[in-house]
Structure formats: C-alpha cells, structure tokens
What does this fold into?
Amino acid sequence: MSYSPPRRPLRFARSFFLSGVAALLLSPLVASAQDGGSAATARSQAKNADWLYAGSDIPRDTAWQFGVLPNGVRYAVRNNGVPPGQVSIRVRMDVGSMFETEEERGYAHLLEHLTFRGSEHIPDGEAKRIWQRFGVTFGSDSNAQTTPTQTVYQLDLPSVTPANLDEGMKLLSGMIRAPRISELAVAAERGVVMAELRESNGPQKRIADATNAHLFAGQLLGDRSPIGTTASLGKASATSVGAFHDRWYRPDRAVVVISGDGDPAEFARLIAKYYGDWQVDGPNPATPDFGKPDPKQPAALEIVEASQPLAITLAMVRPWKKRIDTVANTRRLYLEYLAQALVNRRLENSARAGGSYLVATVEQQYVSRSADVTMASIVPLSDWKAALADVRGVIADAVKTPPSQADIDREMNEIEAFLLKELENARNEPGARLADDMVRAVDIGEVVTSPQGQVDMFKAIRASATPQVMLDISKAIFAAPVTRVVLTTPTTAGGNAAVLAALKAPVTARDDRLAAVKADFKELPAFGPPGTITSTNPILGLRAERIEFANGVTALVSNNKVEPGKVRVNVRFGTGNRSVSADAPNLLWTGDYALVASGIGPWGQNEIDKLTNGRQIQMNFAIDDDAFELSAESRPADLADQMRLIAGKLAVPRWDPAPVERLRIGYLTGYDLNDATPNAVLDRNLRGWLTDNDARWAAPDKAQIEALTPAAFRAFWEPRLASGPIEVQIFGDLETVDYKKILAETLGALPPRKVLAPPSGRQVAFAKHVTEPDIAYHRGEQGQAAAMTAWPTGGGLASPRDARGLEILAAIFNDRLFDRLRAEQGASYGPVVDSHWPTGFDSGGYLLVGSLLAPKDLDRFYSIAKEIAADLVTKPVSADELARNAGPIREQVARASTGNVYWMFLLEGATRDPRVAAAALSIQDDISAVTAADVQRLARQYLTPERQWSLAILPKGMTLADASALDGSPAAAIGGR
It folds into this structure.
C-alpha cells in the first residue's frame, strides 16, 4: 500500500503538473507593427513561439504561450484561475553558484539577497513593506532561490488588479535589472548570509559538503555550494558584486514566466513593457565548463562525525549528456524510474522483514547538468559492511536476472494511477506550481506537456516495458565509469582503506524477489449490518450536510467539484492528546509509523500493497488535541474500499511486531542527533518545555525508547483504536457515488464505541516564569546558539476573534524583529514569531519569539524582544503597520478557502460542536475587524513580564556570561568545532 504518493519519475517533478491539450505551433502574442504580414515575420514569430520545444516531438501544452523579445528575453505565459485572483510571476536568471570564480563563491546567492533590498524604483529596505501592502507574505509569496545552475525570483500577487499587477511587474523588473548594490547594503546582507551560513553549519552540512566533494571530485559541483565561504563573502564589495551582476544579469539569460488569473496577452504586454528596453554592454559570456566525473579520483571516503549515526552513500556516477527532450527521451526517463522502483520495492521488503539495514533506497538523478548519478542511500542497523553487501547484492541481481512481468505491472500500475489522478485534477493545479514547473523544465532542458499528453505517452511506453527491456535499463543505470562510496560513522571504521575494501569485495547476487501475494477485500470480516441514519441536516452557511448514524457515528459531507475526481477523507476518533494524563508516560510518539504499518485484519503491509496497487487508497495517521485521525486522499471509484480499509483498521487492527521494532531501532539510530545543533535541540524539546514538560508533548528519553515492545505498543493503542466518538469528513467529487450507503456499510456498521474519559480535563500548563533565561545545551558548533521567549495566551472556541488578533499581533512582532535583528543588524537569518491557539483545549496557547543566533547576539535578541513587546503594550500600531501585516494574513485565508483541505481542517469537530462551524465562517470577518486598539489590548493582556518564559541554547560548557564576552568577528560568529 502506498501511504504517500509514489516518487515521481523525472518528468513528473519537472513538467507534469501542466494542463491543456496537445497541439501544433502556437500563435504569436504580439505581431510587428512594421511587417506583421510578411513571411519573414511569420517565421520569426514561429521561432519565438518555439523556443522551448525546438527539436522536440513531445505533444505541446497549448495553455502556455511563448515568445522572445528582440533583446533576447524569453517568456512563457498562461491563464490559470487557481487560486482566483492570483498571478504568479517567476524570473529565472541563467546563473548559479557554478558560474562563480573561486573569489566570487557565494556571490550569486548574496546578489539574490541584495536584489530584494531595493532598486532604482525602491528605496533600500522598503521592498518588504511594498509587497506587504499588496497583500504579499514576505518569504513565501515573495522569495528567491539560488542553485548551482540558476537564480529564480518568485512573486505571487493575490487579489490582482490591473494597477497592482503593473506596479508589481515594474518593481520586480527594476530589482532584477538594477538592484541597489551599495557598500552599506552589501555589508548588511553579508551579515545575513553569514548568519545563514552559521545557522546551517554543523555535522549534517559538513557531511553534505564532504560527500559532494567526494562524489563530484574534479567538478565544479563538488565545491560550489551556493552559500559560499566566509573568506569570499568577507571580501565582497559593491564593486565586485556589481561586476558579477553586470556580467551575468542580461536579457539573453532571462526567462519570465507568468501563470495566473488574467489574460496571457496582457501578461506578455507587461513583460515587453518592463523588460523590452533592457540593454547591456558586451557579448553574453560563455557558460562555464562544469566538468565531468574523474575516474582517477579516490573511490572511498570515511567521514567520522561523533554525533551522527551510521550511513552509507553508494554512487554510480556517469557524465551528464545534454539531450533534446523527445518522446524517446520520455520513454527512457519512465523506464529508468521503473527500474529504480523495482529495486526499491525489494529493498523495502527486506527492511520490513528485519534485514541488515533500517532503510535503503536507490534513486537515479541528473544533477545540476553535471552528472548522471544512481545513488543508493543506506542506514545500516549495526554491521555497515553487511548492509552495503546486501544492497549491492540486490542491485547485482537486478542487472543479472530480468524482473517478472507481474513485478513490472505492479510498479506500472502505481505510475499510471498517479498520472490519472493528476489528469483528473488538472484544472485545480495552482498557478504557482505551474510556474515553478515551467522554470524547472527550462533549467534542466526539458519541455512541458499536458496531463493528457503524459497519459497518452505513458500508455505507449508501458506496452514496451518487457522483462528484457527492463533488464537492459537496469544494466544502464547501475553501471558507471566511476563508482564511489561514502561511509559516515560516529567512530572510525578503519579509514578510507576499509571502506574501499568493502566496496571492492566480491558481491553475491541476492535472489530475494518478492513472492506472489494474494489479497482481496472480501477477506475482511464483516463489520455488521449496515447502519441506520437517524438524522441528516445541512450546515448553515456551508455546502455541507451533517449525517448521524444510530451507532453514534457522525459525518460531515461536502459534495463539490473543487477538485474533480478527488475525494478527501478524514476519520476522527477517540480523544487524541486528551486521552492520556499530563504527568504519565505514554506511547503517543509511536503511532505515526507503526500504527499504520502493523496491518489490518488478515493483511500485513505486503498484502495491503497488493490490495491497493494501482488505486488511490491511502492511510495516514495523526494525533490532534481532541481526536486521533486516519486520513486519505482517494477518488470516487476507490472510495468504498478506502472506507472499508479505514473501518477495518478501527474494527480489526492487526498487531505485527516488525514495524514496532523497526520504529524502536529508528528512534535509537537517530537519538544522538538530538543535541547536535541548536535546531535539533529545539525540534525535540520545545513543545515539552512550553507545556512545562507535559508528557503528551515531551519527547521520550532513550530508556523509554529502548523499553518499547510490541506488547506494550498493543496495550496502549488497542483501547484507543476501539474508542469513540467517531466523526468522519468526506469532501470532494461525490456525484457518482452513494456515500450514504458506503458510510452505512463501513463506519456506520460498527458497534457503538466506548468513549474514554479524558483523564486530565481541558487544561494545559505553561512553562514556569523565569527572570533569567533557562539554559539548554547542544554539542555542535561553538558559534551557534538559539534564543526563545514566550508568553502564555489561551485556547478553545470561546474567543475566535482574539485568536485572529493574536495572529496579527504575532505578524507585527515578527515584522519588527525581522527589521531590527536581520535587516538592520544581520544578526539572524530567520527570526520567527508564532501564535499558537489550540481549540481542543481551553488553554495551552502561546506567543513564541525565537531565533538562531551567534552566542554574542543573545543579549541583543532579548533586549530587542523586550523593547518590541513593551512598545506594543504602550503604543497603538499605525494604520499602515496594521494593514501591512493583516493584509497578507487575510489574503492567505482567502486563497486557502478555495480548497477542501482548508475547510476540512477548520471544521474538525463541527458535527459535535456548532461553535466550530461558526468560528470557521467568521475568520475573514474576524481578521478584518481587528483594530489597532485590539492589538494593543491583546499585547497588554498577554505580553506581561511576570508570565514570560525564556530559554537560551548554548554550546556545551558555555555560560551566558561567556556568550556576552565574545567578540563580533566573522570567526567568532561562524565558529568551529
């Protein structure tokens, strides 16, 4: 069973999510006013419209329209109404970190930061405020990304009008064409990038850098991380960064992509208006030679990291080849993906059965136009040599013996089901995703086609996938002129020589292919006679109905076409976190993986895989404050069996021990990562700290993990799976199904369920007030620290407007913290302020302020946070500040409210408590109604020093006094081991 969608073949991820139908050449958007009717112009226009598809025979997606401006700027535009009123703009510059010289390392990324500070149209530092006034959330709706091969600028404009679209295009083009690169701006953003480098530094980054340097030895990819180095960034100046911009930021290296709720012709006109007069001096510089894999470089590397578990990377590295993207190329990509899926199925089956590794997967990638790599990632249990040998053995068998046609069909069924699902939901693909996929396709030299085009091509490809063909493909992707291996180990395993010896050791093909599995839904025991519906009522204000069955099961059903061909299911049962005491050990932490993987009735994981093969049937588990949840994304044809599977999990759970043991080992394997960095310490412990070490959120210690047994797991979860109440949500395309009958025969047919009385009521404690920060420690870099401060707020459904007001208060606090801590001082890359208001408890909410920092900046953080809090208490915010922070929140809600996921989340519990629906329906009004006086009232009510809690995370052995005494040099800021 696929509990999450299958990993996509290369084209899936890069050009699949595009709607429309296949067609011939596109018509030009703008004809020349001088010779529009001439044959020469027609040929030129056809060429301009053909720039993405040159040489390709892949069916086009006619929803996209293409063009090239006279100065070389290429563009792709299309109409898309998801979400309504939004236009997504992407500007791709054909320059990344592999275009830098040694002295310029990090410049592409630094320039990306500078671009967002301002331009000829925007004063320095004002860009964020301007975007906020447009309803844009900084960091998500407006952002940028630098990779080894490209720099991409992103702007998602909500509630678009002709005026703000024109202004947005003007401002973005000015930032890209003529950013303000002053010495002051370079110094400020260098500090931010240094903070980003410091915050990312640690064992995992060291491992990643060393692994890349080893796998791609002799290639630019091996030592051109986009973040750069402290040495090169420290020497960056306005002159040197400006020269980098002038060399690479050129119209003939730019692609502008627009997808959104508007006229493509108008999009093209605006591109011509704001990019058409862009001129630069000199010829376009040649793209650097990225290099090829060098077989003379060492094949084996041992990386010793005391805080990291055993891990192996085995890579078969081939030179990257530039290919025209054709139907034949698509066939190759699909078959390569299929060959990986066949091996991954066998590796996972071995891990389930208790093999020599916890997890092992293979993946073939085309990396940064530099290498064609097939990579095996292995987490050994203890004997790393055995794990490496076993994975090599599975690969050896894959290139020796053809797969069976049944094995091929099983994996092909998964791919086809995924393609059909995307085809059915094509019209609901967000414009932002379509724009991102177009940019990705340009970067890797692929084209885009429609979902129908993908399905049609796949049908022909599937027919060609014979056992012999797949054997040949396997031989191709698991062979290479260069094979390299990396062992990461907490203590030395004998050095590079020992790793090389293990790689060179003879390999024995492992003939452990999956045995044929038989399973049928008819094997599931009957739940009982169909249940009786006792009431059916519409929910006022919503296109949904409430259904209640005689056994107490309630359902909220919305039959809509928001996502054609898709049905979302969420079954809530029991009382979730409230089912356990705040001060008693529990096994809530074991449910996410092991509860689903431990089987259903007569079936284990392999049988469930067989049952759901090629179908849209899933099962995901989550824990909410007031319920446990089993959820799935299905389709109308599969809904009946989807509900049978979920009902079976509740009625006749199976208790296979292997998933529990695998979970235990997995937790223990990663346990020593828990204090390797400040972030790791926070991820594990923060929620427990905020709730005064409430056992429901405090992470389990090593002894608790070691003590986990299948018997203890069952004893904890069996009564909870059997508990009520049950509430089911079904939202989606239900026109062709009798959902009442399906519910009656599944959840409605279950016997009445006992409700476990919550042992600890609806109250959640908050961390005890401190006058000096509590201290926690990490074992990572000496230059890394973190600071947190928080205040308790509230919870429940009694004050929904206050919950919205606190979100705006948090946004204003975050905006001010960003300006002072990052934009002005460069002390942090990503400070964060978050408001949490639980609805399943009447307390437990908090406003949390935090940041990763250098130790020397801890005092500065606490001082700034104290000043911001005091100012919010004593002074009302301005109308502009309120609008700039409330507007993006309101826009996010407006966009999300067009989808079923949003409404299902907000309406959890609505069949039991009418206040839930009322609160969901009032969100937009509640946000709009928040005033400056409300913000100040909430600040006065909650941001009180006498209830404040603070914590600092320091390098082990350091004190706050030591941190304050550190100097501000780059060496002190970045630190070392």
Summary: Residues 631 and 673 are 30 Å apart (CA to CA).
